[in-house]
Amino acid sequence: MRTTNAAPAMASGVAALVGRLHQKLFGHPFVYDHIRPLAVGGIDMSPVYAALEAGPDDRVLDVGCGTGDALGYLPPVSAYFGFDTDAVAIARARQRAARQPTLNAQFEARLLGPDDLGRLAPTKVVLAGLLHHLTDTEARGLFEMLGAVPSIKRIVTQDVVLLPGRPLNNLLARGDRGRFVRNEPDYPPLAAGTGLRVTRSWVIRCHPYTGIARYLVMTLEPEAR
Ligand SMILES: C[S@@+](CC[C@H](N)C(=O)[O-])C[C@H]1O[C@@H](n2cnc3c(N)ncnc32)[C@H](O)[C@@H]1O
Questions:
Q1: Using CA positions, which residue lies closest to atom 23 of ligand 1?
Q2: DSSP, res 28
Q3: Atom number in ligand 1 closest to CA 86
């Protein structure tokens, strides 16, 4: 009797289609900004931006800036540069920034490159919700690139994380659009040997009182040069 590979092929086709729909739906700016907070019990990323310790002299670089969430948290800074590979998210971020002209925010819908870092000379870097979208190699490459920039004094990361004894958090984490959601101990080593050291790492709720999702936050600083 002839065997057929049609069923597994169809199943993987359906899985790919569901994956693309998930990316499209949760990547939509309205869903990201308004529906996602409802699904996780509220979002307040104040602890992430407080850890950045940004002030009026800082030049803030936000890699994976998305729809411009940082604009709701940052104090006045000298300059703000947002990079994201999603042109739709960047268009939304630009609209948002137009309502805060004093911030003088600039956005680029593309990958960050080493030349950008030399030109922009950032002092503080935000990687909010980015590392769980990157492979280990991509994350290490980004840290290496940032670790070689003398102007950078501090980096803050925040990511979806898998935690022991937290089934609800882990269910949400596994449903995230990011394909590289990690266990808590697997995030800090991404910076090993990159010229940066993790100065603190801790888990926060996505909202201090009502949040049901948990995020890992890390602060990194340059190793002594
Ligand atoms: C979870 S969202 C976080 C958005 C925003 N930082 C926030 O906190 O709301 C992750 C963002 O990273 C972007 N992204 C993924 N890979 C990227 C890359 N290599 N370079 C720049 N942005 C990237 C995605 O397009 C997405 O907008």
A1: 64
A2: S
A3: 25
Q: Pick 83 or 12 by higher pLDDT.
A: 83
Please check whether residue 160 lies inside any domain of the structure: yes
147-194 pLDDT tens trace: 999 999 999 999 999 999 999 999 999 999 999 999 999 999 999 999
Number of domains in the chain: 1
For 187-212, what is the mean pLDDT? 97
CA-closest residue to ligand 1 atom 24: 64
Cα–Cα distance, 90 to 32 (Å, whole number): 13
Distance (angstroms) between ligand 1 centre and the Cα of 133 equals 7
69 lines ligand 1 (CB under 6 A): yes
Q: What percent of the chain has pLDDT over 90?
A: 78
DSSP code string of 92-134: HHHHHHHT-GGG-EEEESS---HHHHHHH--SEEEEET-GGGS
Protein residue closest via CA to atom 4 of ligand 1: 66
Give a yes or no: residue 126 inside a domain: yes
| C-alpha to C-alpha distance for 153 and 119, rounded to whole angstroms | 16
1 pLDDT above the threshold of 50 = no
Q: What value does the mean pLDDT of the chain take?
A: 91
Report yes or no on 32 lying in a domain: no
Residue nearest to atom 27 of ligand 1 (CA): 66
**CATH code of the domain containing 198:** 3.40.50.150
Give the domain range for residue 144: 43-222
Whether residue 76 has pLDDT greater than 60: yes
